[in-house]
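Listing S7. Sequence submitted for prediction.
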Amino acid sequence: MEDIKKLFGKRLKALREDKKLTQEKFAEKIDISSRALSAIECGKNFVSAETMTKICIALEVTPKMLFDFDFKYKSNNDIKNGLIQLIEGNEAHLLKIYELIEAYLK
């Protein structure tokens, strides 16, 4: 298994990029230097509990989402594209897909 610091760094970078934030802007939001953020994203350093809280707030994610290394998609765009492919590939089930999503979100 890959080093947890590296996995965390990759996941953090993907979530940050999904929000269209540069390292500099994101580092500013979570009150660390861009150099420190780079070291975290490269897997060289790890975050404190305080920084993790700031990351979760800034990215609007839970700590669990930060550690979901098996997450299949890297960004919201990937998720949207995946849903579009499912719908286009099986339009006969479009209503069922909609009902499932609607029921889940309620």
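Caption to Listing S7: primary sequence and predicted structure tokens for the chain studied. The chain is about 65% helix and 0% strand. The chain has a mean pLDDT of 88.
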